[in-house]
Amino acid sequence: MKATIKEVAKEAGVSISTVSRVLNGRDRVSRHTINRVREVIDRLQFQPDFVARTMIMKKTSTIGLVVPQLSNEYWAFISEVIQDELWAHGYTTLICSTDNEPEKDSAYLKMCLERRMDGVIYCSSPHYGAETNEQIDALKAAGVPIVSLDPSILGVSCVVGDHMQGTLTAVEHLIQCGYNRIAYIGGPAVSIEREFGYRKALMMYGYQVDEGLIRLVKGQSFADGYEGLQSLRATGISFDALFCGNDLLAFGAIKAMEEAGIRVPEDVAVIGFDDIFSARLFKPALTTVRQPIQDIGQELVNLLLLALETEPERRTVRKIVIPTELIIRESSGTGPKRF
After folding, report:
1. 316 part of a folded domain
2. CA distance 198 to 251
């Protein structure tokens, strides 16, 4: 039979309120009493009522983390970083993967509110729908702190990588190596600033943007990169380099080229974005724009902890931009050969 708090108090020779203070980590309890109560709790295998404690403490010590796709190495790693950082500060993490589906976005955010999460870290689609926006507003209205990787959410603090500058640096590197027919594979599942950076770099060097060299795919997976490259080749437009919106897209594109007898980097140079761990293991090793995932995860947690320590009416919206770095490996080659 399950032990009750009343039985713990009786066995320890203290009041129920003293047991409650020990469970909740309150002060005004001597070390000797704390040890005695904890010994009885262990012996009786007492388990506090989580729902009751939540109502009393108005705290669950749980944070909701919403990400688009755990099968993507980038999101798996950043989720692990965030989970470890939160654990170090006494919080558990409920991770929700939306698979880039807007209805899951709003449903998970609604669940975070209903389950009284202490806070939310939102890392899902940059193109969320009206229902998601309503749930974000509901969280804010309830005083639940929320931070994001999306800078476009009004009134929400965010952490972002410097997508545009990272892309500018990557495309500039290709141009300086002599490539001048540079294609792009991206889409709504990656930051729009990466496409903007691609366009801006070409214009800065006096190249006209050829819309036929741009392929916007639905997702951000290996398969999307593979299909994007096939679609690009189907146009018949020649290109000597390719910039992809993330590393998985680049992997898929390289696979499609390999099957078509196109060599990387001898025929086409390729650069990705993110620098996931697989990028250095891939053949050829992928040149890519490194996002410091560890730093991004830590800053998201720091922003959330700051909000948790601040009264809702005194919270301010902050934006932290994390610099990127071009990591040059084998796939970008040293110069163009047309095909």
Report:
1. yes
2. 19
CATH code assigned at 178: 3.40.50.2300
Q: Which residue has the higher pLDDT, 42 or 165?
A: 165
Helices and strands (H, E) in the chain, number of each type: 13, 12
Based on the number of CB atoms within 10 Å of its own CB, is 321 exposed (0-12), middle (13-18) or buried (19 or more)? Answer: middle
| Contact (Cβ atoms closer than 8 angstroms) between residue 189 and residue 248 | no
**Residues 70-119: tens digit of each pLDDT:** 888 899 999 999 999 999 988 999 999 988 788 888 899 999 998 889 99
CA distance linking residue 288 with residue 327, whole number of Å: 5
Rounded distance, CA 28 to CA 216, Å?
Answer: 62
* Average pLDDT of the segment spanning 235-261: 96
Q: Whole-angstrom Cα distance, residue 157 to residue 226? A: 35
Residues 282 and 267 in one domain: yes
Structural domain contains residue 189:
yes
From CA 229, how far away is CA 210, in angstroms rounded? 16
Q: Please check whether residue 140 is in contact with residue 146, taking contact to mean a CB–CB distance below 8 angstroms.
A: yes
CA distance 170 to 195: 12
134, 114: one domain? yes
Question: What's the burial of 249, exposed, middle or buried (CB within 10 Å: 0-12/13-18/19+)?
Answer: buried
Helix axes 222-234, 247-259, angle to 10 degrees: 50
Q: Please work out, in degrees rounded to the nearest 5, the angle formed at the alpha carbon of residue 44 by the alpha carbons of 43 and 45.
A: 90
At 63, the amino acid letter reads I
Domain contains 76: yes
Please give the tally of structural domains in the chain. 3
Residue 60 to residue 20: CA distance in whole angstroms = 16
Tracing tokens 């060299």 back to the chain, one arrives at 213
Cis check: omega of the bond before 68, within 30 degrees of 0: no
Best CA proximity match to 247, nearest among 217, 275, 280: 275
Report the SS3 class of residue 239.
coil
What sign results for the dihedral spanned by CA atoms 139, 140, 141, 142? positive
Calculate helix-pair angle for 73-88, 293-308, nearest 10 degrees. Answer: 40
